[in-house]
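Record 1 of the preview.
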Amino acid sequence: MLRRVDPVKPIRKFTVRAVVPPQLGALEELAANLRWSWHEPTRRLFEHIDPVGWNRSGRDPVSFLGDVDPRRLDELAADDGFVAWAERERESLRAYVAEPRWYEAQGIEAPRTIAYFSPEFGITEALPQYSGGLGILAGDHLKAASDLGVPLVAVGLFYKAGYFSQSIAPDGWQQERYPALDPDGLPLSVLRRADGTPVQVTLAVPGGRSMHARVWQAAVGRVPLLLLDTDIPANDDDLRHVTDRLYGGGGEHRLQQELLLGIGGVRALRAWSELTGRHFPDVFHMNEGHAGFLGLERISACIGDGLSFAEALQLVRAGTVFTTHTPVPAGIDRFDRGLVATYLESGLLPGIDPADALPLGLEPGVPPEDSAFNMAMMGLRLAQHANGVSKLHGEVSRRMFNDLWPGFDADDVPITSVTNGVHAPTWTDPALLALAEERLGTGDTEHADWLSAAVSDAELWGVKRGMRLQLVEDARRRLSAAWSAQHGGAVAPDWLRRVLDPDVLTIGFARRVPTYKRLTLMLQDPDRFAAILTNPDRPVQFVVAGKAHPADDEGKRLIQRLVQFAQRPDLRERIVFLPDYDIGMAQRLYPGCDVWMNNPLRPLEACGTSGMKAAMNGALNLSILDGWWAEYAADDHGWVIPTADAADDQAARDRLEAAALYDLIEHRITRLFYDRDRDGVPTEWMSRVRRTLAHLSPELGADRMVRQYVEEMYRPAAEQAARVGADGAEPARELAAWTARVRDAWPGVQVVHVESGGLESTPHVGDELHLRAHVALGALHEDDVAVEVVSGHTHGDDRIQDARIARLDPDGASTTDAATCVYTGTIRLDRAGAFGYTVRVVPRHPLLVSPAELGLVAVAD
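->
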């Protein structure tokens, strides 16, 4: 006989899956594919079963089906209408997975399979394997690739505790906890062989031991996601914890994670390819340097096929894409070089001599014995195609990594940019979607005609007010729950039910909390800020969220300062800090805000996609001209916070930029928001909202981003890999031999003398400058090099700005000095002002993507 007992703590937790009636088998198929996380019709189907339980589950179908009353499922199984509805949604999913999409029209030269490696993936709050922007971007990349039919397969790690859950102590200090996840209760399945045994990848580690990992797989629409997990009995206890937490460890623990991600990830892909019959990837995309070891694993396999290390490097580089997300060297993973050597010497990578591999991580200008092993440097050396994540970040990256290409100006550094985008179906509020469907006849909010008279200002304003109310109610619920948790389950005080107001201008600010993002810039003048919040005629309210890294006490102090400010009795209903920022919170926060604020130290924001998600919901941006906003800022879309980068010091800069922020809110933003017509609608404000939705949304979409990756990165990488790998990789062998020959001979290359003529004493626009350069090639041939003239305006530092490059051609005439060759050419002077030029020699080969690729250049003195 069972009897009730008081609640006790379990010694072990696991998930018991629900028994779903056969008539409702479609529900299980729908729940197993993460397309539900962005497909509103599927979410509506599950919500219909039990709206309260659906919200309580965090809108996670797997968890939800485990909690639904079996009697309710039996009732629905007998409901022919509901069964037919579920079947229609299942057929929709099957068609979505199978039907040709945009990518199929790209032609046979497009890559057959693209591998996308990332340390984190933010797809849904039901699969908490993300910490912030990098993971959310990766999740959006997968979703957009699925929508477009791009044949992507993604690889990451499964973290037993994911990232940490955040709570705030009464004194405002951030607290972390790491609740363990049960993968059996998540939308995951184990990758198994035909006989049912699980796939396991193995890595040799020091001490004669082995690290094993099973492979979980998730279906992200059409995209398979493989997640490696070391928490299995085959491992020693310490190795079982390698995948315990996302960014939870340092030193050797972090190195083990990145070795597993890169090396184990490629091995998992081989098993997946063999089991599914899918083509092994043509292109490998590293989302940051964490996955850099994938290049060494691929080199190891090529060595097994008979190539040398140098030859394999050429083949691997050709098909590799590297995306950097950090604008500061401190954001790059760096490991002790000796520790990396210890792992490489353990038999981890058959055929690879550590003496060949270790230089890949060497930091330029640092003696090998003093250099750390730098993951970004390895990533850039292993990838022939590299990019930053906004135009400005591309410029920053070219400067930051310039030392890898010594002698070249930053503009020549072979790092381009693909500006991030966000997945509109994931981040657009259902209320806005419903309005587009009803009034504009489309479910594509990203490309809808929001300027159409079919939607009135009043209707759109009403939807925005509803989304604001939704945010207010969600914030009150979260704050009340947090207060009760802090106070032993006591009932939350009445004032928490009055926090925020759905009719007050709402500004949002949410992100990770490193110091450069300046969480507390708004508190530079606390009295002025308080007056803005409590203005009786034009009040403002702020909703703030974000997590500091567990080891970042400075970031935690910023949170504490903000929380303590928000606890003031006169302000606590106008500014709130919401703990435990995650996808679920974000999907209420972005739509509920009227203005999205971002005030990093320029240019330290690589992209900053939170403002993009807010814009997708009709919010206007208030931001420093950094990241994506530097490309898209316009009066139609929001306001630019002036940058005071000429200030004497950081404190002065913060004061000036905060004052500009206050001015914008007080004198422009609030006046525009509260200037209403006789129907209570802020018409000029709504005009800006409409233009943001109509003009900005299409530019900010992840589909634009993924198309750009396909056209500018993936296709060129696949074509280059095919060229270098043709005829049994003979071109790779030839390129490796040519590279070695050019490197050996380069000290003998010199621009000996440059002659010029053709200009009058005072040059004018339209004149032509004739050049004749004498170049010593040493042991090289004319075909091995390109001789170029670099010209353009010069400014105070005498450097050439906005340089133009033109080839000089071999003259063919004999010279008195047999050791030199003569090259000639002409420059047309088409711009007035200070002008300068120089002549340089760079390596030339048809398989080089950039003249700077080898980092070799000889410049005229």
